[in-house]
Amino acid sequence: MSFTPPIYKPLVTNQTISNPNWLAGFTEGDGSFGVNIKHSSSNKIGYQVYLQFDIIQHVRDVLLLQSFVDFFNCGNVYRHSENAVTFKVTKFSDIKNIIIPFYKQHPLYGVKSKDFHDFCLVCELINSKAHLTLEGVNQIRIIKARMNTGRKF
Q1: Predicted local distance difference test score (pLDDT) of residue 7
Q2: For labeling, which of 74, 79, 94, 113 is most exposed (least CB within 10 Å)?
Q3: Distance between CA 124 and CA 29 in Å, rounded?
Q4: DSSP-assigned letters across all residues of 109-152
């Protein structure tokens, strides 16, 4: 029996985003547009709604994710697990004023475009303060249920 030595992925050190369409394509494969609803005692309806955009990669690609922070001028890179890091944006004004306009200008074309569309709908509801009513939170729940893993093809 012969032994085949493993081939390791080379470390890429020049990790700047020179083409925004490349970043849109990368997001199509590894990005996520999320809506989070959690219980909260800080308001009268008992829920807090927030948006989250993230891209998770192996820890060896931390410099690539840091380049996303530099490119968008928002978000942060966090340790996701032992072997993974995530670029994450949760600040509403950054999502509304930076992330959404970027992906409207550099559109997604796969199934993730539908998640992005729903993400934008929830952003509009939050912006109009609908998330501060139980009716608005329930409308957001319906949108959230059809996103990502809940999407039926």
Answers
A1: 76
A2: 79
A3: 25
A4: -STHHHHHHHHHHHHHHHHTTGGGSHHHHHHHHHHHHTSGGG--
Interval 39-50: pLDDT, tens: 888 888 888 999
- CB contact set of 75 (below 8 Å; sequence gap of 6+): 53, 68, 69, 87, 88, 89, 94
- Burial call 30-59: b when 16+ CB within 10 Å, e when fewer: ebbbbbebeeeeeeeeebbbbbebbbbbee
Is pLDDT above 70 for 19? yes
Domain limits of the chain? Answer: 20-146
**What is 20-146's CATH superfamily?**
Homing endonucleases (3.10.28.10)
Q: For residue 4, give the amino acid letter.
A: T
pLDDT in tens, 55-113: 999 998 899 999 999 999 999 999 989 999 999 999 999 999 999 999 999 999 988 99
In 3D, which of 51, 69, 23, 74 has the Cα closest to residue 120?
A: 51
pTM comes to 0.87
Which candidate, 143, 150, 145, 89, places its Cα nearest to that of 117? 143
